[in-house]
Amino acid sequence: MQISEAEARAPATSYAYKASLIGSAHRFELTEEGLSWHIAGRSGLWGYGEISAIRLSYRPVSMQQHRFRADLSHVDGGRIAILSTSWQTAALMAPQDYGYRDFIVELHARTAKAGSRAVLTAGLGRVTYAAALALLAFLAVAMAGLFIRAIMVGEFAGVLFIIGFAALFTWQVGGFIRRNQPRTYRFDALPAAVLP
Fold it and tell me: Fewer CB within 10 Å, N- or C-terminus of the chain?
């Protein structure tokens, strides 16, 4: 069966991923009535106006360095997490970047159209982010101290190791910190840093 050009450009109205190797896929669908979800034998329908908060974040894990997450909250206190990756095998977690992105963008569009007053945030919570920055500052001071000590005693192999380690650490952790800077956004201006 061939997909027409109009169908190919239509916004994604369903999305599924496997959160673990064991268990069924988490399935979501954007219907006229709201967000329909099926997770671990449970299901429900949240009206778009009943979604009280959406938080988008960048959440890499060891098996998948390019992973994003959307946390949705319901006015009654329920919470749903939607991930951009799906477990395929014991050693493979596959990205689903385009399907995830299209679904999240369409969810925002429908939620805005319903007149939702959802709180839209991106990144880490402010307290968590401040703690992460304080830890990074402490590590930077410690690394600088080791670097100066290695130069003073003439341990140039140690100097090179510290430079290499600092570069790798900055590349890995710096991207996480930059993408997860706490901020609010609008329905029509989703932050690109927390979307694939």
Answer: N
Task: Give the DSSP letter of residue 186.
Answer: B
CATH number, domain at 21? 2.30.29.30
Domain count, the chain: 2
Say which amino acid occupies 68.
Answer: F
Residue 196 lies in a domain: no
Quote the CA–CA distance of 89 and 94 in Å, as a whole number. 9
Q: Judge if 19 and 97 occupy the same domain.
A: yes
The token duo for 194 is: 């927390």
- Digit-by-digit pLDDT tens for the chain (196 residues) are 343 444 444 456 899 998 877 778 899 999 999 999 999 889 999 999 999 999 999 988 766 678 899 999 999 999 999 999 888 776 677 888 889 999 999 999 999 999 999 999 999 999 999 999 999 999 999 999 999 999 999 888 989 999 998 898 888 888 889 999 999 999 999 999 999 9
Strand partners, 55: 71, 121
